[in-house]
Amino acid sequence: MAGVPMDQREGWIWFDGELKPWKDAKIHVLTHGLHYASSVFEGERCYGGEIFKSAEHTERLIRSAATLDMQLPYSAEEIEAAKRLVLDKNGLTDAYLRPVVWRGSEELSVPARNNKVHVAIAAWVWPSYFSTEEKLKGIRLEWSKWRRPDPATIPHTAKAAGLYMICTLSKDAAMANGYADALMLDYRGYVAEATGANVFFIKGKNIVTPTPDCILNGITRQTVIQLAKDAGYTVTERHMKPEELAEFDECFLTGTAAEVTPVSEVGEYRFTPGNGCRELIELYTAASHPAKAAAAE
Questions:
Q1: Which end of the chain is more exposed for a tag (fewer CB within 10 A), N or C?
Q2: C-alpha–C-alpha distance, residues 246 and 88, integer Å
Q3: Backbone angles phi and psi of 207, in degrees to 5
């Protein structure tokens, strides 16, 4: 379905407790979530019929909504069942899922307490970005002019829609300049993250990644940290100055969409994806793809 607009696809979307035909899953133009970003979401992948880290994603969705003062009208168990229903109804075993929560159109002003909280879940085919060999060529990043804000000014622990505005600006600018993505600094000038993925740097068996004190501590990030530790790597979470990138040999991004994606370039710094990136790609693939892991055994 490549090239088909998202609102014109075929299939079914779970919308406020019921399945609706894809094209009928609509909201009003005066929806509070559209005007004031009162919305949170998740990005999840299903591999071989199993949603990877499904419970963790559902728990974070609920926490994110609570951070934005939205009480979900469904339990974690109901959301888990709804995700399964969406996959089954659409006949999907390998897919990307997008649960989203937002405030509705009862009123339109800054206060939102009188607006209904809505929940929808969609799923569609979205293959991995690259094969392992293609990934190992590495992607090119430029530096973003936008910085991740002070956590005293944003709810950085929530996967909130409004926090992605500067990510969109950064990635669009990077792609216009011939890059795949952009790397952002935080409000203090430390290395932060890419526009939709966390970043890691490798030197031998040592891995360093920015402390998530003003960025989202991604579920894929947490998974890869544990996989790396189990494989004998030393993983350090700390503040990093941009000039420190010159000290590392390899770099990679992690995220639900990116999975584990090596990086060959960040601005003026160069990296050569090698054994570290390859091993972590393979470890993450084995952990997230149950069918492949079983076949390997």
A1: C
A2: 48
A3: -120, 135
Query: Could you tell me the CA-to-CA distances from 92 to 7, 165, 174, 219, 226 in Å, in that order?
Result: 19, 30, 33, 23, 29
Residue ranges of domains in the chain, CATH in brackets:
6-124 (3.30.470.10), 132-291 (3.20.10.10)
Q: What is the pLDDT of residue 297?
A: 45
Q: Does position 127 have pLDDT exceeding 90, yes or no?
A: no
d(CA 62, CA 72): 7
Question: What is d(CA 289, CA 291) in angstroms, rounded to the nearest whole number?
Answer: 6
Query: For residue 112, is pLDDT > 60?
Result: yes
> What does the radius of gyration of the chain's CA atoms come to, in whole angstroms?
19
Specify the pLDDT at position 162: 97
Phi, psi of 228 (to 5 degrees): -65, -45
The encoded tokens of residue 189 equal 């000038």
Buried b (16+ CB within 10 A) or exposed e, 226-259: ebbeeeebebeeeebebeebeebbbbbbbbbebb
What kind and span of H or E run contains 278?
helix 275-288
The residue behind tokens 């430029």 is: 142
pLDDT of residue 130: 63
Active site residues: 159
pLDDT of amino acid 129? 62
Rounded to two decimals, the pTM is 0.94
